[in-house]
Design a protein that fits this description.
Blueprint lengths: L11 E2 L2 E6 L4 E5 L1 H11 L24 H10 L2 H14 L7 H7 L8 H16 L5 E4 L7
Antiparallel strand pairs: 1-2, 2-3, 3-4
Helix pairs in contact: 1-5, 3-5
Length: 146
């Protein structure tokens, strides 16, 4: 026999805040606390309105091409920091579909990091800074909701 305990209304699950609006028949999910923590961790302060600039392009040709460039970059920049940024962004995409595409782009450069992918990833963090209160809203859109 399995004992079950009712802990009441769900507020948080794996770091995601859950808000249930029974009158509107909606559930809202957000990661505001998590986003504030990663912004403090990475020291991002200047918000931007979009996760990438209109004329910004990121391609394999912009990553490091030679072994010498790779060694030089590894000595002068923290590649692990880049991977940490990408990992935190991947987790944030659970409730932030507006960054899923751009995070997918930067995640392709983990094996060959250069300055452009790092700047691209930092811009996504700065976008989160300006949109910390965004949430994913699920549920009935008007109507009676059955």
């Amino acid at each position: 026999m399995l004992d079950i305990t009712d802990l009441g209304e769900l507020n948080y699950i794996i770091g995601i805040q859950v808000r249930h609006d029974r009158t509107a028949h909606t559930i809202s999910l957000n990661q505001t606390t998590y986003i504030h923590q990663i912004l403090m961790h990475f020291g991002m302060c200047a918000p931007v309105s979009t996760p990438f600039a209109a004329k910004q392009n990121l391609s394999a040709s912009q990553s490091l091409q030679t072994e010498e460039e790779h060694i030089k970059y590894v000595k002068h920049a923290d590649v692990l920091r880049y991977l940490e940024i990408v990992g935190t962004l991947l987790y944030a995409t659970q409730t932030r579909p507006n960054i899923q595409h751009t995070v997918g782009i930067v995640s392709q450069f983990g094996g060959n990091v250069g300055k452009p992918p790092l700047e691209f990833a930092k811009r996504i963090l700065r976008h989160l800074k300006g949109t910390t209160q965004f949430k994913l809203k699920l549920g009935c859109n008007g109507g009676s909701g059955s």
